[in-house]
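Hi there, hope your week has been kind to you so far. Please have a think about how the structure follows from the sequence. I've dropped the whole record in just underneath, so have a look:

_____
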Amino acid sequence: MIAFRLPVGVANFSRGRQWFVVGILSLGMAVLLGRTFQVQILDSPRLQAEGAARQLRSIAVKPARGRIVDRNGDVLAVSTPLDAVWAHPPTLVQSVADRSRLADALGMSVNQIDSLLDRYQDREFVYLRRHLPPAEATRIESLGIAGVSSLREYGRYYPAGPITSHVLGFTDVDDRGQEGIERAFDNHLAGIEGRKRVLRDRKGRVVEDIESIRPVYHGRDLQLSLDLRIQVSAQRHLAQAAHEHHAAGASAVMLDVQTGEVLAMANVPDFNPNKRSDISGERFRNRSVTDVFEPGSTVKPFTLSMALASGRFSLDTSVSTSPGIHYVGGWPIRDVHDYGELTLSGVLIKSSNIGTAKIAMELAPEKLYDILTKVGFGQPTGVELPGEQGGSLLKRERWRPSEHATLSYGYGLSSTPVQLARAYSVLASGGILRPVTLQRQHRPVAGQRVLSAHITRQINFLLEKVVSPQGTARRAAVPAYRVAGKTGTVHKPSPTGGYEEDRYQSLFVGFAPASAPRFVLAVMVDEPQGKHYGGEVAAPAFARIMADALRMYGIRPDAGVDSGVTIVSHTVGKETGA
């Protein structure tokens, strides 16, 4: 065999190249090992934190708002599960090609999405659409667009719609109470938001719940005193009265005499809380607690209660009302007719302004002020609704003789429908003033005595006569039941002072069954056209609503039950519509 040897110079070059390659590989290995050490050991905490920040997110867990139910458990408001579609702006801004698909799915324009991304480019979260049906949100999320995901939220739904709108109010897009019961009991209904940590994929979709950071507490249910059946009746008959008389508006409030509970509170015009486009300040105002008016002749029973309580008057005390006009301090007081000589009973039955004023001015003005404040005029009722007005009652020190006279028959003070209903509940309950409430009560409420039972029996007997064929409100009668109440017809105040000659508010407030009163109902119709007397406009609506309530509760007819009060004699004149 012949051996082949490389020249010495070539062999040395080959060995040098090998060592060079080995050196390069060793250096690379050292760099890799060093980098591995840095990543795995030195930078591990920082990198893990950054990875978690990119994949782990802390998100809110929305609570379900509590239900609102009526006294019988019928649902008036409930929160339904909905979804919101949201985006991570830094991620979505890079998905230019997907934005057109996303815009079509959301029913938006690309420009709208771009505008949102520009506005919130430094944020981690922006809503794209709210209150979507879960199926629609799932469809959008299934498009697989990076940076787009959905989030569970809740939307409020009101099964009765406009029927209970003014009492319940409504919530905003974040399910926070804005008006009515929703606002007054927001803390009770809202619950407490929770938080949880979730794992997201590179497209921003939640792939796993990691842990609960703070538990969610859902809102508590709330039971109201409302009876949805009576509420439906009140809304229907009130709307009918407003339509028949082309009125600007109307209100009705029914109270339970024994508890002070609000069984119905209706207003016209109404609104649908399920359609936010239908909500405006003028329509969602709860006129039963926010709108004040002069109660007019409905105050007269309290003036005559004061007179009877003084001991100087009885039911057959005679008062001259001729010639149908009477001046006090240059201020004219008029009756619809010249009734001549009337007894105190006749003054109330015929609704004589002159007779009432003359009786009131026989007594100190402090007496009238005292009884009006005792039954709640000039003070809010405290019913659990935002925006309640307390009405007005001029301070006694500022009364002139003309104010003393006009206040006795309901001019110069103001009231809301719920205040007027509360005042009459004092008569219906035999002299007891009870708090007004929209929360369900499970036992009778004690209240405070402000009038004697003996006086209220006499007044209530007269109020029954008002609803008789001899009185001003025969159209308030309910067949087979004894009804007691009083009409009122007042001129609306003019913005420039004084009163409007051709703009009226028609009133009727009363209770039934008179033998053992259970329900008090106040009805006010604002600016009826044509007929405007309370006995013609408000009384028929009262009769329809009251008849429904008596039937629904199975109240036994009392038309044959004796009142136990006897009038020795009284003079009455021709019927009017006062």
Q: What stands out?
A: DSSP finds 20 helices and 21 strands in the chain. The longest strand covers residues 499-512. Residues 424 and 510 are 7 Å apart (CA to CA).
